[in-house]
Amino acid sequence: MFRTRASSFFTGFALASAIAMYQLQRDVMGSHRILADEVEGYYNQLEKRIKQLELLTGLSSTNHAHQVARRNEST
């Protein structure tokens, strides 16, 4: 009788643990997805701001690198 109760308890515990782990994994993956989308949005905004600053200053990243290299060669 004790074996039956113990095996039933452990079977139920294992099943409940498996379901809880599955739900936890889904929650973690959902949070990861939300954070990744948010970071991607921030990155895209930063890229837009950099492009706007480059347009305002008349410098692009490649032009700026060439100008810095020319300044270093002349000194």
TrEMBL record:
Keywords carried by this UniProt record: Signal
Signal sequence, start to end: 1-18
Protein name as catalogued: Uncharacterized protein
Originating organism: Sphagnum troendelagicum
